[in-house]
Amino acid sequence: MKFVLGVDAGGTSTRAMAVAADGTVLGTGRAGGANPNSHPPEEAVANLAAAIRAAHPEPAGASACVIGMAGTAKLTDPVVAALFDRTWRALGLDPVVILTDAEVAFASATDAPDGTVLIAGTGSIAGRIRGHRMVATEGGYGWLLGDEGSGFWLGREAVRATLAALGRDAELGPLATAVLAEAGVDPADRRLAWRRLITVANAEAPIRLARFAPLVAVADPAAADIVERAADLLVATALATRDPGEDSPIVLVGSVLGEDTRVGARVRAKLAGLDVRASSDGVLGAAWLAAVEAFGEDLARRPG
């Protein structure tokens, strides 16, 4: 039986799926994270191999394999690339197509070859998709240079708003109260609390500011302002990748853009009138793209 393999290799977990030519799911596999930027490359390829073997006992029989991977930039290192190539040979996989996690996320939500993918989790980035491949990006520069509207950005703005309230000796609203509680700072002495919050925020890796992001869900004018600014920034990032009058889908990905989040709701409202969709599951997109590689777009069937 002809089949393909799709893999979604993230920083936390790796999931693989074997799918027959008619879309029937033959098996699934799961293993630890396989992002070679956040895991030692040897560990990343071991987890990839484990997930693939769990999805199908004879991966060498696959007509194609598509891997959507966070951290693809690491494969520009010849040593790392050689390690991955040896893994594919050991599994008997040929061809293997490695795509970004953004590309498989887009494909998980739509069959359309062209469109936009907007990702906002801890960081943020938008990509222009043409022919199922990302051909241009906006944002994605990391916490120091960008990531506007991301979980990091939301958390940083929540802390900044709290520091501003403490510095002005203003009344502490629900957002500031929640930020101080999350930071373990006693608000009784305002000046001490101001200094202590600065110390706590700077004592950790900057990206850890993302832990304050969920607090913007509280009913508070300062939180509402942060949410609105985040939504404006994310929408601008997405629209910057689109041609004038383009009507292709916009696929939203990531925890910040969930339908049940305030930022996600505002982004959807600001994109009203466009074809906005949510990514369902990256491994489904990877498996479908593998079917397109093996059987052609007209014959590829969605896993199900």
TrEMBL record:
ATPase BadF/BadG/BcrA/BcrD type domain segment(s): 5-290
PANTHER family: N-ACETYL-D-GLUCOSAMINE KINASE
Protein's name in the database: N-acetylglucosamine kinase-like BadF-type ATPase
